[in-house]
């Protein structure tokens, strides 16, 4: 309830406290040198198993007779449907494939991705969870304190309680640091959003199994390791406010916003539902829905078992990409001020035509190296000399919906021109952080790269 007393619109001390946590590379609860043993113990403490199965062996899932859409009998969770995407015109020569059909996930409910924060020994710590997801390449990664769909925390699956959920939806939740709806993968989800939250508490918090308190500095160190910090953690971390140490930028904030609006206006896209069993170029057999070229992704089914989940055993569909992706940010200093090159990226599942993506976002397996158009800057990223590469780590995408979906994440110093090609713009990290406080400006890949970029400020790989 509001206090009915005037207060400062922002908490001026918060960026400094977050910066202090980022500068603290050892924690009051779990020293960094003990983290590997802790994670190994959590892995040994439970039985995890994931097996591919034919669609017919999924429990509660079936293909609708009239559409072929893959649905759950409860009407909850998500559906796999068909989508027809078209873009009228190609304002920037964005490539030849602007009219296509594909499967896509539709999930109406908004989940919560929430990290609980608390001061320990005078330093902000963040409560992270060692969470199994069936699609993770290594199954167990660090997730937010709460990573739950509405079906999870309202017990649509008749499972157990979502731990710590009252800190995010209860009447006595603590001080809100971050609370913003953000998009999910626009190529695989249709207009899917999750509520990204960081809430600080001053009360006692019982420490349950599979959870640990880490400083932001410790988390940033772990972001330099392959497949440790999961995608949901990365997107929440990217939304943390930061002190604006530089007030200069190539584009003023209003100019950057105007450029984004112009890109959204310039692109004219249409999406239409299509029956999943009549998608041109796609075929279904007993264990997968796949494209006839072998590119893009497959829809598959798995049976999963995890002793420490709200439901210990279940079956579900997953999207499995045809190969690993490449995400890259080009960076350069402009008159002493760091900038990154972002692109206005059209994706079929986005709510507002475009969101800002990293400089490079693509899957090489989907391109014929001899014949097809490649994204701008892709070759310069992949051929960058070692002394220009500031960051090079493999991170998995969301393991609750995607199987073995990994991206090589690179941050590369460049002398790319200050006048980028159409559809690209230079922005400062502070400008991106400011945009991350609002919905539908940075896509999920850009938020991953922003979290990685922030991790390079205080940590050396």
UniProtKB/TrEMBL annotation:
<feature type="domain" description="dTDP-4-dehydro-6-deoxy-alpha-D-glucopyranose 2,3-dehydratase">
    <location>
        <begin position="33"/>
        <end position="240"/>
    </location>
</feature>
<protein>
    <submittedName>
        <fullName>Oxidase EvaA</fullName>
    </submittedName>
</protein>
<dbReference type="InterPro" id="IPR038153">
    <property type="entry name" value="EvaA-like_sf"/>
</dbReference>
<dbReference type="InterPro" id="IPR005212">
    <property type="entry name" value="EvaA-like"/>
</dbReference>
<dbReference type="GO" id="GO:0016829">
    <property type="term" value="F:lyase activity"/>
</dbReference>
<dbReference type="Pfam" id="PF03559">
    <property type="entry name" value="Hexose_dehydrat"/>
</dbReference>
<feature type="domain" description="dTDP-4-dehydro-6-deoxy-alpha-D-glucopyranose 2,3-dehydratase">
    <location>
        <begin position="254"/>
        <end position="453"/>
    </location>
</feature>
């Amino acid at each position: 309830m509001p206090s009915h007393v005037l207060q400062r619109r922002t908490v001026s001390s918060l960026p400094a406290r977050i910066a202090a946590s980022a500068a603290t590379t050892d924690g009051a609860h779990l020293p960094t040198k003990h983290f590997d043993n802790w994670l190994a113990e959590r892995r040994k403490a439970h039985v995890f198993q994931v097996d591919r199965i034919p669609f017919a062996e999924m429990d509660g899932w079936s293909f609708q007779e009239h559409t072929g859409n893959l649905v759950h009998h409860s009407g909850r969770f998500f559906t796999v449907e068909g989508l027809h995407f078209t873009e009228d015109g190609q304002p920037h020569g964005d490539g030849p494939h602007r009219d296509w059909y594909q499967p896509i996930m539709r999930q109406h409910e908004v989940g919560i991705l929430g990290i609980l924060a608390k001061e320990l020994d005078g330093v902000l710590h963040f409560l992270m969870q060692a969470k199994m997801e069936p699609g993770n390449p290594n199954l167990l990664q660090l997730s937010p304190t709460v990573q739950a769909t509405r079906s999870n925390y309202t017990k649509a699956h008749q499972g157990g309680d979502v731990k710590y959920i009252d800190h995010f939806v209860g009447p006595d939740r603590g001080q809100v640091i971050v609370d913003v709806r953000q998009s999910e993968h626009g190529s695989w989800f249709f207009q899917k959003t999750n509520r990204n939250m960081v809430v600080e508490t001053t009360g006692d918090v019982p420490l349950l199994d599979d959870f640990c308190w880490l400083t932001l500095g410790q988390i940033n160190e772990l972001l330099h390791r392959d497949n440790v910090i999961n995608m949901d953690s990365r997107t929440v971390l990217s939304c943390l406010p930061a002190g604006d140490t530089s007030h200069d930028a190539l584009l003023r904030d209003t100019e950057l916003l105007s450029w984004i609006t112009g890109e959204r206006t310039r692109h004219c896209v249409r999406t239409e539902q299509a029956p999943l069993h009549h998608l041109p170029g796609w075929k279904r057999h007993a264990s997968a829905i796949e494209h006839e070229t072998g590119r893009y992704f497959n829809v598959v089914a798995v049976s999963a078992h995890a002793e420490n989940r709200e439901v210990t055993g279940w079956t579900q569909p997953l999207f499995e990409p045809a190969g690993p992706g490449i995400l890259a940010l080009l960076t350069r200093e402009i008159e002493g001020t760091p900038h990154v090159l972002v692109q206005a990226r059209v994706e079929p599942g986005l709510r507002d035509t475009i969101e800002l993506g990293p400089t490079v976002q693509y899957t090489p397996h989907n391109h014929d190296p001899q014949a097809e158009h490649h994204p701008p800057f892709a070759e310069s990223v992949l051929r960058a000399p070692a002394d220009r590469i500031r960051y090079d780590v493999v991170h998995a995408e969301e393991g609750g919906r995607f199987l073995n979906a990994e991206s090589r994440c690179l941050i590369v110093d460049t002398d790319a021109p200050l006048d980028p090609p159409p559809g690209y713009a230079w922005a400062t990290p502070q400008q991106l952080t400011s945009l991350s406080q609002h919905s539908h400006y940075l896509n999920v890949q850009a938020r991953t790269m922003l979290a990685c970029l922030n991790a390079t400020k205080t940590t050396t790989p």
